[in-house]
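Quick check before the chapter quiz. The format below is the same one you will see on the exam, so make sure you can read both the input and the output lines.
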Amino acid sequence: MKGIINYFIKFPIAANLLMFGLLIMGIAGLLNMKSTFFPEVESRTISIQTVYPGSSPEEIEEGIVNKIEENLKGLTGVERVTSVSNENAGTVTIEVLKGYDTDIILQDVKNAVDRISSFPAGMEPPVIYKLESLGRAITFAING
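Here is the expected output.
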């Protein structure tokens, strides 16, 4: 330790150059730092929403949801497929495995749904999209 101090006492220009170099690298690091208000999390969820006005949940399940699920069975990169059938609407949620590109799976899902030609008459076109998720940066609670 004394050797380092003695070196910088003998050569003050080296100490100034070291300080200047650290300052420049700090400014460069600050300018290249990426920051967001909400942490960005890669979405791994795809949703298919269908609307069939005037139908019961059973009609949605039999006429729409089951057909979509059957066409999605052969896709690679799909971890789980869940569905919900309500009055007038149905939702199919697809979870993508880690390591697979969600945008490529989204295109595969769109192609699989477009291959279905036997949807009921009067059904609106299905809406297929990737769910964007924003995680919480911090949770703050005051307790008395």
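If your answer matched, good. The helical segments are 2-10, 12-32, 57-72, 102-114.
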